[in-house]
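Collaborator request, handled under Task 6.
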Amino acid sequence: MTNTPVTVVGLGSMGSALARAFLAAGHPTTVWNRTASKADPLVALGARRAATADEAVRASPLTIACLTTYEDTRAALEPAYLTGRALVTLNSGSPAGARRMAAWATSRGARFLDGAVKNIPSAVGAPDTLLYYGGDKAVFDEHAETLRVLGGDTVHLGEETDLAALYEIAVGGTLLPALVGFFQGAAALRSRGLEAETMLPYATKWFEMIISLLPMYAKEIDSGDYSDPAASVGIFHAGAAADLELAEEGVNVDWQRPMHDLVRRAAEAGHGDRSIAVLTELLSRP
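Structure tokens returned to the collaborator:
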């Protein structure tokens, strides 16, 4: 059985990783990038270089677009003939951006699927790498085997075209606060002449503890019952002053102030003895 030909549009670090995975799996792979030289390493591996975006899309029944934003994707594919082609976008953006992208693509005759790669480029193709998609289930079913080349944990979330972007925002929202918290800890240690690496055993254990709490918090949120807290709003509110006192060690803690303000508002609204997960209710309102 011949492997499905695939086109990859956008050859940044992630797009190039996608193309390499398809090539390694034996898929005839056409590539295109505005800066043509970015295709050179892939051509050396056996990819076919298209001269234009239109040529690239016409070369394959399945096109994977991996540019920075939906706007970039539309601009790149504006000259391309999309009628009847399966178009999968793997870029950053909001749910609203995904809906606009879907409307544009389908108005041009494309069969549209939006997705997200939940890992770094070097993990593309690994059996446990997660990718999820929202949109045309028929497109997913038709190309599931090909898409699974990019990651063994490949999921269709539903027919709504913005679901991957929605989950990307929902899940990805934890990343920057977690990283900034780690960076703040590193800054605190450096202020005492200690190396960030010395924090790793304890930070890892801490993150494992947080992971263990997520099912409990999800259950509280889904039920709306915050009455039996493992950690209350009041505990976090009481600890805010100590968190901010870290500034005396020469560390900038300004990024924490909006979070502490959210906790303060929850306490003032009478939620002090309820689970910290009740913050979800405040975040659900303007």
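The cover message to the collaborator said: "The CA atoms of residues 8 and 19 lie 6 Å apart. The chain has a mean pLDDT of 95. Please let us know whether this matches your experimental observations."
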